[in-house]
Amino acid sequence: MKIVYMGTPDFSVGALEALIRAGHExxxxxxxxxxxxxxxxxxxxxxxxxxxxxxxxxxxxGIPVFQPERIKRPEAVERLREFLADxxxxxxxxxxxxxxxxxIPRLGCINIHASLLPRYRGASPIQxxxxxxxxxxxxxxxxMNEGMDTGDILYQKEILIAPKETGxxxxxxxAALGAEAIVEALLLLEEGKLKPxxxxxxxxxxxxxxxxxxxxxxxxxxxEVIERLVRGMNAWPSAYTFxxxxxxxxxxxxxxxxxxxxxxxxxxEVIRVEQDAVMVMTGxxxxxxxxxxxxxKRRMKTRDFLLGYKIECGExxxx
Length: 319
Known about the structure:
The chain has helices at about 10-20, 55-60, 75-80, 100, 125-130, 165-190, 225-230, 300-310; strands at about 1-5, 25-30, 35-40, 45-50, 65, 85-90, 110-115, 120, 135-145, 155-160, 205, 240-245, 245-255, 270-275, 280, 285-295, 300. It has about 325 residues and is of the alpha/beta class.
C-alpha cells in the first residue's frame, strides 16, 4: 500500500518504522518545519535548527520529507497531490487537515490516537488518563474528518494502566501499541474487513494541551489526587511546589496514612521527616515524597537530598 505519513514527535516514529518493516511504500513524510534548538549549555541562544524525530527517521530511510508551515495553504495542498498514496496515516502531526486534503487519497486519512475514543479527544490524552486515575486506555485507529478526533472508529487496542504508571512510561507503551495497531488495521483495511463505528457523542471527553502551570501542586487536594498528578506530569512538565521561596519539583511520591505520633498539620505542612522521605499533609491523607529536585539542582532521591538540605517539621511547601 502506498502511504503518505504525517507525524512529528517521538510518539510518531515507532509507527513509521513499523509501516516500513511491514513492506508498505512510504511515498513521503510530512512533518513540522525545523525549529531553533533554543539555549545551549552556555546559556546562549543556539541558532542551529532541530529536526523533528519523524524527519530524522525519514531521512535515515531515504524517504522524501515535506515540511509546510501551514498545510492548508493552496501551494501545500498541491504539493501533497504530487505524492501518490492510497491512504494518509497521521500520528501527532500537529496541524489540522482540511476537507480538501482529507479527500486526496482514495482510502482517506487515518489517525493513530492515544486513547479509547470517544474518551480523551484532544492534545494530551496520555497524561490526562494517568492524572484522572483511569484503569485502562489504549489506541484508536480512526477515519479522520474535519473535527478534532471525531471521526469513525476503525480499530482499537486496549492496555491496562499500571498502579505506578507515569506519563512517560505510558507514552512509550502507547507508542509501541500504536505501531502494532496501525499495521494490523491497514491489513484489515486492504482486506475490506474494517467496519467504521460512529463515535458516541454522549461519552465524549476533551483534553487540552498540558501546560507547566497545571503541574503546580494544590496541597488542599487529596494525597491520592496529588500522587496521580506527580505521575501524570512525569516526565514533562513535572509537578512542583515551593520550599523556602524556591521551586521544587516532585518526581515520585506515595499515599500514606498519618502515623500515631504525627501532628495534624495544615495542607502543605511537613509533619514528619524520615531518612529517605518527607511526609506532607494534604487536604485528605499524607503524601510521602521519595524523589525531588530543587531548582538549579539535579533530580535526586529524597534520601540524598536530605544529606545536603535540612527540612524541618512544621515547614510549609507553599509559595
